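Deliverable D5.2: sample structural annotation.
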Amino acid sequence: MSIVHNKPAVALFGGSGTIGQALAPLFAPQPFRVVGRSLSQLQSAFSPYPGADLAVWDQANPETAVAALQGIQTLVYLVGVPYTDFRLHPVLFEQVLTAAIKAGVQRCVLVGTVYPFGFATTSLVREDHPRNPHTFKGQMRKQQEDVLLAADAAGRIRGTILRLPDFYGPKIPRSYLSSLFQAAAQRKTAQLIGPLNTPHEYVYIPDVAKTLLRLIDEDGAYGHTWHLAGAGRITLSEVIKLVESISGRHVRKFVAGKRTLQLLGTFNPLLREVAEMHYLFTQPLFLDDSALSQLLGPLNKTPYPEGVRASLKAEDTNP
C-alpha cells in the first residue's frame, strides 16, 4: 500500500470502479483514500496517483471497513455489485455506513440511480418525486437510500444522495453505449438495447466526477437528495449517427427489445436481469437538476458530440 504523509479527508469506497477512477485525477496531487476489495486492482488503477492511499475491504469481515475509514471525514460510496446480485446493495451499504459511523466519519455521499422511482409520473423528475419502485432492483436501491436517509435523520452521520441517469464515457464497460463505441473502433457488431427512436438521456462520467468533487465540500448538500441530468434528450438512433459521422464508419448492429432479452435471458442470467429494467427504454425517465444547479452554480454538461468523440478515441486500438 502507498504511504502518504498528509492525512486524507475523503475515502472513495469502491473507488476502483468507473466514477472512482474519474475522480482520481481531480483529487491529485492531494491525498485521498481509495478502498476496494482487491489490492492488485487498486494498485493497477491508481499507480499514477502518488496521493492515493490504498486500503482493502473484505466484506466478510466488517472490521476491515472500520479500519479503512479511520481518520476519514467524508465517505463517497461507489460500490458496485453484479447486476445478478442486486440484493447486496442495501446489505453492503449498511455494513459500510455502520463502519463509517464507528470510525467517526462525519459525512457520506451515496451515488444512486433513477431505479427507486419506478415509473415517472411527471415529465421531469424532481427530488421529491414519489419513490414507488416496481422492480426488484428499484426496491434494493430504495432500501439502500433509506439506510442513509434514516441515519442522517437520526443524526448519526450527515448524508446526501446524488442520483444519475444512464451513463457513458471513455472506457466505461458497464455503459449501455460501450458496445457501440467498441464496434465502431474494432469493426464489430454493436449489441444494443432498443427501441432506437425513443428519447433517452445519458450523463457523461467525467461530468459526474467534476460535480461530485464540488458536492463533497458543499455543506448545504447534506441532509438532501440531488439529481444530475444528462446533456439533453437523445435517441439511440441519433447516437448511432453521431458515432458513424465521427468515426467515418458504418456500424453493424444487433438491437434487442424486451422479448428478445427475455428469450436470451433463458440462457444468460445477466440479460434476464437487464430485461427487468427495459421499461426505462420505452418509458424513459428524465431528471430535473435545477435544484443542484441552484446549489452549485452552472453544472458541467459535455455535449454528446464531444463525449462520443472522446469515447471513440479511447476505444481506438491504435492510438
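Annotation notes: The CA atoms of residues 27 and 256 lie 39 Å apart. DSSP finds 13 helices and eleven strands in the chain.
The annotation will be released with the project's public dataset once the embargo ends.
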